[in-house]
Write a structure and sequence with these properties.
Helices cover about 10% and strands about 45% of the residues. The N and C termini lie close together (about 10 Å). One of its GO terms (molecular function) is kinase activity.
């Protein structure tokens, strides 16, 4: 169409407040080795989760530990709340969106009880993964450190 995103890049926001880190630092090989795709992770300082992009909610897992969003340019993003938290069967999560909802970047998605997650010996790291890497030409590096939800943390370039 107008190729707006191809020149400047497509920005992805922080999904929560906390310590931003490269996805390669996640303590789970599926994520750290980018088996599901590239992205970033945040060790949260609170349990409020926001949309890293504008798009349509395509999946809310029954266990509430993950939310899928597809952007208007067909980028598929998975917002994964914690590591192995599927085992908690939804207990620490409250999801505010449902499949089919339209969200804007930085809209509130969910909350997670980080104290319960860590008390049960699970990792509460929030991971954002771009699951259809075939549409992406490049992903910028993340600058590790403190971040606030809504901050731009990565820029993507799409294939022509």
């Amino acid at each position: 169409m107008f190729n707006i995103f191809k020149k400047r890049g497509f920005t992805v926001a922080a999904a929560c407040d906390g310590k931003l880190m490269p996805i390669t630092d996640v303590k789970d090989e599926v994520f750290s080795q980018k088996m599901l795709g590239d992205g970033y992770a945040i060790k949260p300082t609170d349990g409020k989760i926001y949309s890293p992009v504008a798009g349509t909610v395509t999946t809310v897992f029954p266990t509430k530990h993950a939310i899928g969003i597809t952007t208007d340019n067909n980028l598929e993003i998975l917002v994964h709340l914690g590591i192995d938290t599927v085992e908690l069967k939804g207990e620490p999560f409250e999801v505010a969106v449902k499949q089919g909802d339209t969200v804007k970047q930085d809209d509130y998605l969910a909350s997670m009880n980080t104290e319960l997650i860590t008390a049960e010996n699970y990792d509460d790291t929030v991971i954002v993964v771009y699951t259809n890497m075939d549409v992406i030409k490049s992903v910028s590096d993340v600058s590790a450190g403190d971040t606030t939800h809504g901050d731009t943390v990565q820029t993507l370039q799409f294939n022509a």
